[in-house]
Design a protein that fits this description.
Small_multidrug_res; Small_drug/metabolite_transptr; about 100 residues; about 0% strand; mainly alpha
Length: about 100
């Protein structure tokens, strides 16, 4: 169950990052509220996952999901640049996440 909590926590990290972008510096109440609620839920689920997963593994996976997820949302939803070097960087992050999962 810890892995499920961790993945959901990572997905919520993507949500709050996206909502924060849309909040326009916390000037739009609806997106600001989504950001704060998603942050709290993400941290709460991460803390539950950390009860049984090693700190390094849990934190690395959580931030990796958030990083790559925000990268994908940026490209697909916000029209950010998908240069070969940025894509390679994301692939390397995913590879590192896979290795981290294999070693835990």
């Amino acid at each position: 169950m810890a892995w499920v909590f961790l993945v959901v926590a990572g997905l919520l990290e993507v949500l709050w990052a996206y909502a924060m972008k849309l909040s326009n510096g916390f000037t739009r109440l609806n997106y600001s509220s989504i950001t704060i609620v998603a942050m709290i839920a993400s941290f709460a689920l991460l803390s539950v996952a950390m009860k049984s997963l090693p700190l390094g593994t849990a934190y690395t996976i959580w931030t990796g999901i958030g990083t790559v997820g925000a990268f994908v949302v940026g490209i697909l939803v916000l029209g950010e640049v998908a240069s070969p070097m940025r894509i390679l960087a994301a692939v390397l992050i995913v590879g590192g996440l896979g290795l981290m999962k294999l070693t835990s």
